[in-house]
Amino acid sequence: MIVKRVLAFFLLLFCVFVLSGITFRTWGYSEEKKIGNQISTSVIDKNAATNKTKVEVAENNEENSKNPLRYTLHFILCVFFLAAVFYLIRKSRITSSVRKFLYLVSIIIFGLGFNSSPSPMGPLKDTISMFGNLPEIIHPRLFAILTYLGLVIIANKFICSWVCQLGVLQDFIFRLNRNAKDNKGIIRQFKVPFILSNSIRILFFVTITVSSFLWAINLIDFINPFAIFHGIELQLPGWIFVGCILIMSIFIYRPWCNLFCPFGLLSWLFEKLSFYKIRVNYQTCDLCEACVDSCPSEAMNAILKKKRTLPDCFSCGSCIKACHSASIRFGSHFHSIK
User: Fold this and answer.
1) Distance from C-alpha of 86 to C-alpha of 83, rounded to nearest angstrom
2) How far apart are CA 128 and CA 65, in angstroms?
């Protein structure tokens, strides 16, 4: 049964990427052709023509900057890595040491190996920035966003949890400051109230959107923490911000993801639609709250108490291992492992 579920997950993952790619190419080329015809055969406003030309240039530059072999390899490794993690978390085999090992492997492959691109945040950041400069949505980035959201719907935050370069790095740093049971920090760690963290994240999203639309300024480029993988030149304030994020990761769970990340905010809105996510068997749960203690955020407390507003759950699996009664599973519904 578990093999069938892993294969089903693998197939869904593959379909999301393939459909996204097909749609991107179909829409991208047809839109490019349409714009070209409009510019060449229609008498249009000079500013409109300039904007359309800019869109074409942006699309062509993006297409030319992609190395098909590199992106194909990234896709293959991503699928196999997520499928392996999916199998392990479904079988409740992700212990503290296994989790740190998987994070380290992910950092090496998707961070050091592929630098900062592709990443879940990149397409959304660029779409906001480019839409603020141009009255068009750049289709490749739009469909990249839809692809990532498709992954969120298949398995809750899996893309953020296990293959986002920066997210995994923050999580790895956080876990280094945990005891052997992985339920509290060696140096005290803090759980930021979700109402506070999400309010900051919403305010940040509004700020970068307004700055892009009104002044055509991409604020994230000045503080982009993904720069540590790509070697992008940042000014001193940017490096200070990146340093603060990494230091905060010792004490706070995924500070960039929970306090700033635009895609983190967007994917949080889709979490309730996820097929596979953390589920509790309330018939066997004895409410010992060991899962709440092990959870690095407020997510498990909200899930256990059936709160209407749920904080981001990154499907790390800490709660599953901490449960003494085997009442927590990662699945499309609760089931008992035989």
Assistant:
1) 5
2) 20
Separation CA 282–CA 286 (nearest Å) = 8
Q: Which residue type is seen at 74?
A: H
- Cβ partners under 8 Å of residue 127, min gap 6: 137, 138, 141, 142, 145
Task: Check: CB of residue 116 under 8 Å from CB of residue 98.
Answer: no
pLDDT digits (tens, 9 = 90+) for 48-81: 455 455 445 444 544 444 566 777 788 889 889 9
Residue 42: what pLDDT? 45
Contact 325, 287 (CB under 8 A): no
38 — pLDDT class (breaks 50, 70, 90): very low
Q: Which residues contact 129 (CB under 8 A, 6 or more apart)?
A: 212, 218, 220, 221
Please indicate, yes or no, whether the overall pTM of this predicted structure exceeds 0.70: yes
Are 273 and 153 contacting, i.e. CB atoms less than 8 angstroms apart?
Answer: yes
Contacts of 128 (CB under 8 A, 6+ apart): 208, 209, 212, 218, 262
- Nearest residue to 79 (alpha-carbon basis) of 138, 128, 9, 139: 9
**Beta carbons of 101 and 219 less than 8 angstroms apart:** no
pLDDT reading at 201 higher than 90: yes
| Residue 36 predicted with pLDDT over 60 | no
What is the sign of the dihedral through the CA atoms of 91, 97, 101 and 107?
A: positive
- Domains parsed from the chain with CATH numbers: 2-272 (no CATH), 276-331 (3.30.70.20)
